[in-house]
Amino acid sequence: MNLRRRKPRPLSREDKTFRDDRLFVIATEDTYSPDRYFRIFHNPRIKVRVLPTEAGFSASSHVLDRLDAFAKEYELTGDDELWLMLDTDHWAEPNHVANFDRVCKEAVEKGFHLAHSNPCFEIWLLLHVEDLNPSDRFKSCEEVVRRLREALGAYSKRTIPGSCSPSTAAIAVDRAERLDGGSNDRWPQRTGSHVYRVVKALFRTEDTPSHS
Prior knowledge:
The protein is 38% helix and 13% strand. It has helices spanning 33-37, 60-73, 88-91, 97-109, 122-126, 141-152, 166-180, 195-207; strands spanning 9-10, 18-19, 22-28, 46-51, 81-85, 113-114, 117-118, 192-193. The model is unreliable at 1-10 and 13-18 (pLDDT under 50).
């Protein structure tokens, strides 16, 4: 697959209009939250396509397959970015970690980016409203959701908190980056989220002058 081809292409077979904006494709094991979340970013030069889990195909290998299939079906360019977004609450456990590492390695070899969260995507949402310390530990996603509900008063995976906006996302990026401590790990080894990496890429695109 040649990711450097620059001719205009349709985003989908149903969409007959052609696009010249930059495409961010995010494959996730979640069904609702990331898809809802990335709708807060509005920029005519950026199109974010989230590939959520459907029909229960949430295993890390299935999520990678979805991203790979999209990359093969649609004509992408070198400016487009493809991201694999997974939670570590199950897959990084001792009996699954070898397969999880294999999936991450395969994704990187294909030229995809990684944006995993420990223990789950909700830790990224929590960073919009709370600063966390490296010593903070969450044994499960359920604990993160409880903390999120305490901070917000209510939370549902089918909706995104009103506290999530581009401005609070910038704050979450700073908080997540501090937690990450400049690591090059494929996923956070302790509480944290690498979703900040894709959000930083979105912000960089917004700040880049248009040459059209």
